[in-house]
Amino acid sequence: MSTTFSYFRDRRPAEPPTFSISELDRDPHVLFRRMRLMTRFCGVTTVVILRSAPAMSSVSMAIRARGQMETERLRSHGVTGGYLYDILQHTMLYSNGTAHRQRRAPLSRAFAFRLITELRPAIRARAHELIDQVESRSEMDFVDDFAAPIPAHIISEILGLPEQDIPEFTRWVYSISRAISFSFLQSDIPDMEDAARNLTEYVRKLLCDRRATPRLDFLSSYVLGVDADEKLSPIEVISQIVTVIIGGSDTTRAAMAIQVFLLLQHREQWDAVCTGDMSLIAGAVSEAMRYEPSVGSTPRFTLADIEIFGIPRARRQCAFAINSVGHA
After folding, report:
1. Which residues 6+ apart lie within 8 Å of 211 measured at CB?
2. Which residue of 63, 72, 114, 231 has the fewest C-beta atoms within 10 A of its own C-beta?
3. What is the DSSP letter of 294?
4. Do 62 and 318 form a contact (C-beta atoms < 8 A)?
5. How far apart are CA 4 and CA 84, in angstroms?
6. CB crowding 5-40: b at 16 or more within 10 Å, else e
7. Edge to edge, what strands does the sheet with 319-323 contain?
8. Segments of the chain scoring below 50 in pLDDT
9. Predicted pLDDT at 45
10. Rounded distance between C-alpha atoms, residue 245 and residue 145, angstroms
């Protein structure tokens, strides 16, 4: 990827220096640490906010015109319709205002804290089962053997999926999850569209099944709520379930892999967590998610020309990424 970002101090230099995406990928912590000493934000076509609190105060009014990116990312790749487009167009994840509130409310009611609490024993049992499967080998591929399958199994538990559906279901989910990143390529779109079609139809059948034969589970509770409210269209109902599936799968997989990677870079902390005080575990998880989040920035778009620290930015230059990687 050849995209470059310019950075500048509060006063724009004549020729702003640039850094490449490859430099960013090589070590974002070092790069952002250096950038934060020199500037509050960087970017030419995409503005990357490096210190969000002061920067957001100057752009909040313009960003209010549009917060989430909706379908901007797909349309920039020439995608203006299809199953993938429908999912992102109707998900609460990338919607704003009234649409966001209406799509979020029934999920919040059905996806209660009590549901997750009740699932804890099943989650622990599944984790032990996956470890038992690799114990005799004395080694494991952490992502493939643990971090990837466990979120899919838990989501399948929540949705009541048959065990034999999980492998293909997982493949669809991880394919679609690339669409919510900023790194997918044009060549990825056919595979993502195919996965979106399969997952949409799969979820549609699940919802029909719960309407015909309700259970005492999350999906039945959700269907009951949205049908009673009559505020969401059929595609909106499907898209929210797809959102839950994606949100509970890819970010969880990444977070677990990052956690282990960070601890292995600091073996004294690994040893403390593994063989020392068990109360350290919760803090280690929280700190890993803060220091190296699985979602490192949040995109925002504006609908008006704005000025940031005295530097004018045209409306189409204002795709914001609120950076959080390694922020103290």
Report:
1. 223, 227
2. 114
3. S
4. yes
5. 28
6. bbbbeeeeeeeeeeeeeeebeeebeebbeebbeebb
7. 41-42, 46-49, 319-323, 297-301
8. 1-16, 44, 55, 61-62, 65, 328
9. 53
10. 19
Nearest C-alpha neighbor of 88 from the set 242, 221, 228:
242
Tell me how many domains the chain contains: 2
Give residues with Cβ within 8 angstroms of 147, minimum separation 6.
Answer: 252, 253, 254, 256, 257, 260
The vertex-289 CA angle with 288 and 292, nearest 5°, equals 70
Q: Identify whether residues 138 and 252 lie together within a single domain.
A: yes
Domain containing residue 221: 72-265
The reply to whether 237 and 178 lie within a common domain is yes
Alpha-carbon radius of gyration of the chain: 22
Q: What is the pLDDT of residue 328?
A: 46
The β-bridge relationship of strands 297-301 and 46-49 is unpaired
Q: What are phi and psi of 303, to 5 degrees?
A: -110, 10
Alpha-carbon span 324 to 328, nearest angstrom: 9
Instruction: Give the pLDDT confidence score for residue 291 in this predicted structure.
Output: 87
Write the CB contacts of 109 (distance below 8 Å, at least 6 apart in sequence): 221, 225
Integer Cα distance of 165 and 186 in angstroms:
29
pLDDT on residue 316:
53
Position 22, amino acid: S
Which CATH number is 207's domain given? 1.10.630.10
Burial class (CB in 10 A: 0-12, 13-18, 19+), 210: buried
**Taking the complete model, does pTM exceed 0.85, yes or no?**
no
